[in-house]
Structure formats: structure tokens, C-alpha cells
Amino acid sequence: MAWMFAAIEAGGTTFVVAAGARRAHLVPVVLPTSDPTTTLDAVVAWLRERGPFDGLGIAAFGPVEVDPSSDRYGVIGATPKLGWRGVPIGPQLGEALDCPWALDTDVNAAALAEGRWGACRGLDDFVYVTIGTGIGGGAVSSGRLVQGLLHPEMGHVPMQRADDDTFEGSCPFHGDCFEGLASGRALEARWGRAAEDLPPDHPAWDLEARYLASGLHTITCVLAPQRIALGGGVMAAAGLLDRTRHHLRERLAGYLRLPESFLVAPALGAVSGLHGAFALAERAQSSRG
Predict the structure, then answer these.
(1) Domains and CATH numbers, the chain
(2) Are strands 55-60 and 5-10 parallel, antiparallel or unpaired?
């Protein structure tokens, strides 16, 4: 019997939605993220034309409750997207599509996918970090996703600022945290141009690589992963991954020896989160028994 799955990567800018029986055959559609009612109605309408489904997986922007035992499982938390705070995205979509559902953060889902099919396959301890509009990270330790009080919020770790940097930071909660200094939103606020519009020789990129190395220094020392996959739209900048590798080694100052394969691009590229949502949909179906 072929199960039918729905996969959603719910982002702050777009919702990427797909349906199918096999991960390799997913053909996604991209829907704009607007207010919750408009966005979720559009997602449900598209999926209903392709259902019914045996499982739904949701890879959501955060913060979001990811503990299935919580009565707030699948509810969006204190996101900067004010209209989405408190939206029960998991329960609402599961009820509308009348199928079992599972939800995790977009970066946790991407970590699941990279561990199962991508750049971290065969490893028990690794981290996926996305550098996009915001910054987030998912960690796998001993083969299991790390979560406790909530899911990890790697984008909000404190940072050591460059001596000559007067930019106050773009994070509405913490100002100059990792996300506040190194996200796509921070790049645009600092330089007045979107990341994709900054030329390769712009001074933004060396400063960006230094801040990325600073944030990854903390993650490396705290979690001791075997590998970090570094994705997101900002990382499409030419040479940024190599610059970040260089600055990370400089910061670690020989204290830790990093293998050449330590800092890599995600093998699944931009679809890591969506394919992680597919893995969550499979989990939802299997949990029903």
C-alpha cells in the first residue's frame, strides 16, 4: 500500500508545500506568507485537491511548541511576526486536512533530512544552521534531536562584537545577538542593501564571515558536533562558506582540530526543510499505528 503524505515548510516569507507518496518525487508550490487566515486557507485549499493524506509534516518557523505532550503543541510562540503569535498552526492544519500530523522547527526538520539523506548521513552528532532572513539551528545528539525547555534557539546566543562595529543589531528582542548581527535582515539594516545585492568584494562579507565564525565557535564548543551544515539564502554568497571556515579556525586558535569536512553546505540545498517535513509526515503516519 502506498501512503500519501503532505509536507509543509512554513517560513516567515513563504510557505513551501508539497504532496506525494515518495520524497524524491515531491514537486513543491511556493505560497506567500501573509496573515494566518489567508496563508493557511491557501495551503489547505491546495492540499485538499491532492488528498486525502495519511500523514502531515510541518516544518515551522519559531519559536513554536514542539513537545507532543504539551497542550500547546504546534502553537507559534513569541515570533517577531506579530500576527502569528499564538496561532495553533499544527492543530489547525491537522484538523482541516483530517489526518495525523507532526510538527517541528524548520531547522530541526532540515537537520533530520540532512542526517537521513544529506550531508550528515551516517553521523550521530551534528548541527544544521540556516543563515537567512533570521538565523536558527537544529542539533542532533546521539541520533536524537536536542530539545528541552523549548527547541534550541542558536540564533539568539550572545556575540562578541567587532571592536569597530557600532551597528546596534536588528533583533527586536536582544539587539546584537547572532541573528541581530549576522542574519539577512541584519545585513540589509547595516548596509542598506539586501544580501543578494551586495557585490562579492564588498566589505560586508568579511565582517559577515567573522560574525558567522563567532556564532559557530559557541555552537562548536557547547555541542561538539561531528559536522555543521550551514545553509540558508545568505550562504549563497560567493566565497562566504570558505571565508567562514577560515575565520572559525582562527577563532578556535588550534584548541580544537577541525576536519576538512566539519563545515559544509547542505547536500539537499534549499529543500532540506521540506524534505524534513516529509520525514515528519512519515512519523505522524507511523505513530497512528
Answers:
(1) 5-108+270-287 (3.30.420.40), 119-266 (3.30.420.40)
(2) parallel
